[in-house]
Amino acid sequence: MPQISVDKLLYGRILRILYIFAFLPVFYFIWDEYKKLAAISISIILIVSWYLQFRIRHQDIEKPYYQLWLSFVEALFVFAVMLCIFIRDSIVEKELEKMLAVGCALLLARAVARTLYMLSMLREGKSFFTSGFWSKVATISINVTMLIYVLDMEHYQQICMGATVLMLFAAAVSFGYRYYRDPTHRKPLSVCNQLTMSRIVLTPVFLWVFFYDGDLNYQNNSLVFKILALVMVVAFMVTDFLDGYLARKWGEVSTLGKYLDPFSDKISNMTVFLCFLASGYTSVWMVALIYFREASIETLRTLAASEKIIMPARQSGKWKTAIQGIGILIILIGALDPLYTLIPNWTEIWEYLPYSVMAIITFVTIASGIDYFVSSKDVLKKYV
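^ thats the sequence. predicted structure below, dont judge the formating
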């Protein structure tokens, strides 16, 4: 190792030790409510963290054994600080802050997952992945969120924690992509099919985000979670476009993908429609007709498969998917709180808008189903 690398390594270790020791006074300042002193300590942590992540790039040059234990101690201190803030606020205000609890749980899960991964790599004698961009951004976001909570900036706490949750999720997705694309860990599942699978995996997360406050009335939900739900639906639509586009571009079109893509669309969209039903944005008969169409087409695909025929997506099906996505976006955007102040009489408009949009979606969905059945009459003749 060149001399400059040794110096850089020692310099990075000194900064990481300073980073860890900067946490110690924070615990005392939090409980005695010395906000300014706690903010100064966390500001030092934030600056050193940024320098380590983007300037020193310590995770790229540190030896695996030291990296394991230093990372574990850092993650443990971060979790402990956020947990202290959560306990303090719960005692003082006598009210559990759900968003902060979610953040603490994710930080603990991240620390455990990272440590287990490093231990497994050490046992196998393999090197760690270098820290990715989203992982670095997530670390900075965590430290900024700590600063906001210590300063007790109520209007920004949930926004920062929501952003941190998104960054942690992005870091996890980025790591998973790099891990499974690595030649030593690569799985037979292609990137395109992984994008398709992501919609299935994210669907329960959307369900939790939609009903985060435990109230069936989506209008009462936090603006942060309304925006998060909107972002997730946009992610559903983007991955739906990308999986097909990339499969054709990279020559990764597969039988699994042809079946998995429409299935993931139905899982994600039907979950959204059921959420709308619970919130009163649509009626039972609309959701029932949409479900009847989707189930019928899946049955038709199964019959075609038994005859060794793969039913390709028809143009009406593509229009149906596009209109469903646009309609979902309209309803989620319309539910955002700022529209009530920006647009006059929006309350009166909103009374009819969701139901009208869902009616259009239902009509287009049924029309698409009829088109599929008409085009598949040769398959039906064998069974009817």
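The CA atoms of residues 9 and 168 lie 27 Å apart.
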